């Protein structure tokens, strides 16, 4: 549930579970050439493609419950939710080695959906950064390139040692201190309030919160145990499990409550009284052939970054062996909201081995591109024939459907495609398990989806432990 910290009203209410939207076509051109350290070949090569894009304006959604050599060019239709889209709000989001990837990517995704121009800036000597859970992200720019710019918001993700890397960056310190002095918005989540902002002297006389593991470092009189705190231009939050609320609060402060509500609806945010988080049919034990379990997450240009990164982060926290495999001709992919992710390997490199679980992320364009991979389709058929586990998030259930792998199965998917799954569609749960198949609505529900996988593979005890680290409420039942 998204509850506005500014107006104290719930902005997401339960409505009929369907989307009424006009299909629009956007032509998206990507020109991607990212430099890497000299010791490593670049995972990105010059890549140009045009795809049919079915993004919907946020207002149409109805809630169902840089270096000088870098070149990035994206052409898309302007956001329809932001009346000031011609002069977008500018947001700086710094990252470093050990940044918490869920927090960083959720912030990027949500704020870009809201209409913000988000610059992801590396505080390291290179643009490619390995996050806390091992996800490889590529920044848009170096922090030094941002020193003379004015931003409407600076948002600091947490994670360790990421928060310490941000703290030790003198350029970022000067930019953020100037932001506070000039009364522009800034925010921090997880470890960043205590580890980054406190040493900079930016928490004085402000009510603040942070991750429970660092709460003792905060000034006692001003520390508040809450998921969100907004105090005199500073917004703070607790961890990956509160990152959506944090990002939506920042979106509301930038664009207003209406835009924040529309973004929350498009993310399928649910209320406390909305659908149950999980339903299971034909319950079986998920036995695996490896320990730790081997998990493949295939990705493509246009995959939903919040789904990809949440799956990687949570499953690696649970100690699964996660391999991110690109179906493209490059290891680097451009996700749905422009986040640049570098895969661990190519899909061709993993096709000769058996894997305990294959999970398909969603995204309209990403799903289309995954569905064209002959190697992936072969792997999915072999997975089904061998009785191994398969998962699909958001619109990617349509890939399994076209392969004939959903026959006699109970499933769920993004509301835009769930009706196409016919008799097996389950409309009153965000996560559905049927035997060795697990599916989800996607987007904001991917956290429940990933924790559901952890519960089946490792037991509810480990799932609950992971959820606690995320500062996320794990269902008791």
UniProtKB/TrEMBL annotation:
Example GO biological process: glyoxal metabolic process
Gene Ontology CC entries for this record: cytoplasm
Annotated DJ-1/PfpI domain residues: 89-253, 294-454
Keywords recorded for this protein, A-Z: Repeat
Repeat recorded as keyword: yes
Domain of life from the UniProt record: Eukaryota
Family: Belongs to the peptidase C56 family.
Protein name: Protein DJ-1 homolog C
Organism ancestry: Eukaryota, Viridiplantae, Streptophyta, Embryophyta, Tracheophyta
């Amino acid at each position: 549930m998204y509850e506005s910290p500014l107006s104290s009203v719930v902005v997401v209410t339960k409505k009929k579970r369907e989307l009424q939207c006009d299909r629009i076509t956007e032509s998206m051109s990507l020109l991607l050439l990212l430099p890497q350290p000299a010791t490593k070949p670049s995972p990105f090569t010059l890549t140009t493609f045009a795809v049919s894009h079915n993004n919907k304006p946020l207002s149409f959604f109805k809630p169902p419950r840089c270096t000088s050599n870098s070149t990035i060019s994206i052409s898309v239709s302007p956001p329809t939710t932001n009346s000031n889209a011609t002069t977008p709000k500018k947001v700086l989001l710094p990252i470093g080695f050990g940044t918490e990837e869920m927090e960083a990517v959720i912030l990027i995704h949500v704020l870009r959906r809201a209409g913000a121009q988000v610059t992801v800036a590396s505080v390291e000597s290179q643009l490619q950064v390995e996050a806390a859970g091992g996800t490889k992200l590529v920044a848009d720019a170096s922090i030094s390139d941002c020193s003379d710019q004015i931003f409407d918001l600076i948002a600091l993700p947490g994670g360790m040692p990421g928060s310490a890397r941000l703290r030790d960056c003198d350029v970022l310190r000067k930019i953020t201190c100037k932001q506070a002095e000039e009364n522009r918005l800034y925010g921090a989540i997880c470890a960043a309030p205590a580890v980054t902002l406190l040493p900079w002297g930016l928490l004085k006389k402000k009510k603040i919160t942070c991750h429970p593991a660092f709460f003792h470092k905060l000034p006692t009189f001003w520390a508040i145990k809450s998921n969100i705190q907004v105090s005199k231009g500073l917004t703070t939050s607790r961890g990956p499990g509160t990152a959506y609320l944090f990002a939506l609060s920042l979106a509301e402060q930038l664009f207003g409550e209406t835009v924040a509500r529309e973004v929350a609806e498009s993310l399928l945010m649910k209320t406390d009284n909305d659908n149950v988080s999980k339903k299971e049919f034909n319950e079986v034990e998920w036995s695996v052939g490896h320990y730790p379990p081997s998990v493949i997450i295939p990705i493509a240009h246009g995959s939903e970054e919040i789904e990809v990164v949440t799956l990687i982060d949570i499953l690696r926290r649970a100690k699964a062996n996660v391999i991110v495999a690109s179906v493209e001709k490059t290891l680097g992919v451009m996700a749905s909201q422009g986040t640049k992710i570098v895969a661990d390997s190519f899909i061709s490199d993993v096709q000769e081995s058996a894997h305990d679980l294959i999970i398909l992320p969603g995204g309209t364009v990403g799903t289309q591109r995954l569905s064209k991979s002959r190697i992936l389709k072969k792997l999915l058929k072999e997975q089904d024939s061998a009785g191994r586990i398969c998962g699909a998030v958001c619109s990617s259930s349509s890939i399994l459907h076209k392969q004939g792998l959903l026959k006699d199965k109970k499933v769920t998917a993004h509301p835009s495609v769930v009706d196409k799954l016919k008799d097996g569609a389950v409309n009153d749960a965000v996560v559905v398990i049927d035997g060795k198949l697990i599916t989800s609505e996607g987007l904001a529900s991917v956290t429940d989806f990933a924790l559901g996988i952890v519960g089946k593979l490792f037991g509810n005890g480990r799932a609950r432990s992971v959820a606690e680290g995320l500062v996320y409420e794990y269902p008791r039942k």
